[in-house]
Write a structure and sequence with these properties.
The structure is a single chain. The protein is α/β, with parallel strands linked by helices. It has a single domain (28-277), classed as Metallo-beta-lactamase, Chain A (4-Layer Sandwich), CATH 3.60.15.10. It has helices at 2-10, 91-100, 185-192, 208-211, 218-228, 250-260, and strands spanning 31-34, 40-44, 47-51, 78-80, 105-109, 125-128, 133-136, 139-144, 164-168, 173-176, 197-201, 232-236, 267-268, 276-277. The chain has a seven-stranded mixed beta sheet with strand order 6-5-4-3-2-1-14, with no helix packed on it. Strands 7-8-9-10-11-12-13 form a seven-stranded mixed beta sheet.
Length: 288
């Protein structure tokens, strides 16, 4: 750890060198496509899912990495929102995707409808409590707990819930944690689900005294993957927006250092922004 911190300090003022893989279109067949930060696109069977879509800059924050696919090529049958913070629920991006596909279904934590009134028909927005599920497009989608919080302004603090998602069909069981601190909820998720791919955040952990209560660091992500019993860990939530004190490249450098110097019960796969991930065709549908 001390060696790594010394290395990171030397690189602190250098610009990001994270590679980008440009795509001309969304891929065909089944895939996962990471577009930076927490934004993930999935194609499972015939259903295209967007999780926390953020397609441009945020108020006061510009992207360190460009969107790896032309915006006009993006399309979603289902949009999952983990919580209301601006780097996960970007209103402009959501409205653009709704314009692209007026039949899009939105799944969000309970209380989220307050942000969507007048933007989408009520029957096309499913609000879930923790451990509640909905079947959409042949996918069994469950909102699972996280240790975080949710708001847009000081007036709506925690008026809507927050969480992560487990997305399942007969061939896949995929977990996207949203924002979360480390906690016992990872073991609780493992008790109910068999996780194939776990997309876990590794950035926004400094200053530790503040961020440890709401985010996980690279070593905590590895610990969480173990608790989840995940088959594959894929790190996200880094390299796109500088929302905390660590250098923009530090999370993935630290993560890869830990992976290369230790043994784990799961496989880890680092995706470049815009890289296509193809799934292994194994059936793991299980929930209680």
């Amino acid at each position: 750890m001390a060696i790594f911190q010394t290395l990171s300090h030397k690189q602190k003022t250098k610009p990001s060198k994270l590679p980008i893989i440009a795509q001309e279109n969304l891929p065909s067949d089944e895939y996962a496509l990471w577009l930076g930060h927490a934004t993930l696109w999935l194609k499972l069977a015939e259903t295209t899912v967007a999780i926390d879509p953020v397609l441009g800059n945020l108020p006061l924050y510009r992207r360190y990495s460009p969107l790896p696919i032309p915006k006009e090529k993006l399309f979603a049958d289902v949009i999952l929102i983990t919580h209301a913070h601006y780097d996960h629920y970007d209103k402009a991006s959501l409205l653009y995707l709704l314009k692209q596909n007026p039949k899009t279904i939105i799944v969000a934590p309970n209380g989220f409808w307050r942000y969507l009134k007048g933007k989408i028909d009520r029957e096309r927005c499913f609000e879930l409590e923790w451990w509640e599920s909905v079947m959409v497009g042949g996918l069994f989608i469950t909102l699972v707990p996280s240790l975080h919080w949710s708001n847009r302004t000081y007036l709506d603090m925690n008026k809507a819930l927050w969480g992560g998602y487990v997305i399942q069909n007969a061939d896949h069981s995929i977990y996207h944690s949203g924002d979360t601190a480390y906690g016992e909820h990872f073991k609780e998720i493992h008790e109910r689900f068999e996780i194939d791919e776990a997309f876990l955040p590794i950035g926004a952990y400094r200053p530790e005294a503040i961020m440890k209560k709401v985010h996980i660091s690279p070593p905590e992500a590895l610990r969480a993957a173990h608790d989840l019993g995940a088959k594959t860990l894929i790190p996200i939530h880094y390299g796109t927006f500088k929302l905390s004190d660590e250098p923009v490249d530090e999370p993935i450098e630290w993560f890869e250092h830990l992976v290369s110097t230790s043994t784990h019960s799961f496989h880890s796969r680092t995706l470049r922004i815009g890289e296509i991930y193809r799934f292994n065709p194994t059936s793991t549908l299980k929930s209680t």
